[in-house]
Amino acid sequence: MYIPFEEMPEEARIWVYQADRPFDEQEKTWIISKLVTFCNQWNTHGSLMPSSFDIKYDQFIVLSVDESQLGASGCSIDSSVKVLREIETKLNVNLLDNGKVSYLDNNGVKVAFLPEIRQHIDEGSLQARSKVFNPGVNKISDLEKQWLIPADDSWLKKYFSK
Hints:
By secondary structure, the protein is of the alpha+beta class. The protein has helices spanning 25-41, 74-91, 117-123, 140-145; strands spanning 13-18, 43-44, 47-48, 51-56, 60-65, 100-105, 108-113, 131-133, 148-150.
């Protein structure tokens, strides 16, 4: 059952999917409709889960489940991945490939695929103190405290150590 994201508890579990480009307004409207419908029927073993989503920075889809009432099962997680694949296909966007790093620069969110990281560093757009999006966040409260971290506090620190 869909619950507005701001009403989800801080301890609700999340999955963050980063797109390789921003969504335009029409795409966001379609994603919102698709995900409200999905959340309203998202279930585990036949029981509806209190769930929600948010679109952040026009480029990240954050799915959430309040597991204090009902935990997500493997099958329910698989069904969420299925809907994300549909979004990928319809919008021709890369959401599920984990081989990319997103970070903030003066122009907004930048995406570097793993083979391109050194190039982004050499060009100066990705620096040790650049804020990178931490893919390891797993609850809503993490979005405030642990989602944006300096690159040299992440696994990318190996590129900046002297």
